[in-house]
Amino acid sequence: MINYIAHWDRILIQSRSEIINELQEHDFRAICPLEDSSKIKDYYSECIDWKISKTKFFDFKAIFKLKRILNNLEENSVVHVFTLKSGFFFMIAAYFSKNKLNSTLSITGLGYLFSNRLNTKLIKSFLRPIFIKLVNKTFRNIIYQNSFDKNLFNQYSKFTNNSYLIESSGLKGSQYMLKENFNKKLRVILAARFLEDKGIKEYINLASMVNSTDIKFYLAGELDEGNPKSLTYKDLENIKKNKFVEYLGFVDLKKELKNYDVLISLSNHEGFSRVLLEAIYVGLYCIAFKNSGTEFIEDFQNTKIVDSKNLDIINNEIIEILNNNQKISLKNREIINEKYSTKNIAISFDKIYKMEF
Questions:
Q1: What is the pTM of this model?
Q2: Which residues of 212-246 are buried (b: 16+ CB within 10 A; e: fewer)?
Q3: Count of Cβ atoms closer than 10 Å to residue 337 Cβ
Q4: Separation of CA 354 from chain center
Q5: Percentage of residues in the chain with pLDDT exceeding 70?
Q6: In this structure, what DSSP letter does residue 182 have?
């Protein structure tokens, strides 16, 4: 039995459910808040409800709840923890647990803790001795999605065990509805969690400056209440009232991305942008602010990386797309199937799991 742990059930439903479908020789147990229990039970042999508050940045009680769960696992269980936040909670809980576990951490992005805010720098300095003391005792392996995060976190935590670079969480192309052609009236979308560093406000400013009835802007996503960088409910209400963008809320990207033509990413940092990979595969033109988790798109056709958030440059790029007779790139899909498929990611994970049994 392989145990998947995360502080949010959606983390274990999305790409991870696709990965475990590729690994039929193993049984998987989900340990997470069971908000959408009917859906997660479709993929996992067993589910354990880790009662952690999604609205709190640091749920102290959740550590002790997780410790009790870990105490009841089989001795030497294989555990795979997803996200740095879950990894920190697990690290403390495992320290107090009586059980010996074979643990792997996937860092899908360094997130809030490594953002350039004064308060986060103080928190990061405060937590560093805990990471240095426990990270090597807790995790045999850490999986990163880009080399920048790998180098930064290993230096910060002094992690010296096995580090792996596995780009992306995988994509199963057969699950996506594909785009066949571009709309005459261009449909532009930004899809992201509503955090301050995701470029939501810059995107709205971009929409307000584009003077063309042939271009329409859409915004998809939700608040992330447990994240200190989350936009507020007041921000959300203002977005809903904004005349320059149409707010979509949560969008099933596998089915609905094909309805749009251009995907914009203005995030300050990413682990490895899944939405960009999805959009490229479906057939959208992608424009992204360059960081360690978006620069991979330079290997693809119909993409543009920008080194700054200069809205005039992005505006000109959108106008150029509108004026050109844009074609879908089939080559992009071939590259993703060869390099970033769910099957390839599952094979990489399986090699790590088999070393732990």
A1: 0.91
A2: eeebbbbbbbebbebbebbbeeeebeebeeeeebb
A3: 16
A4: 25
A5: 98
A6: -
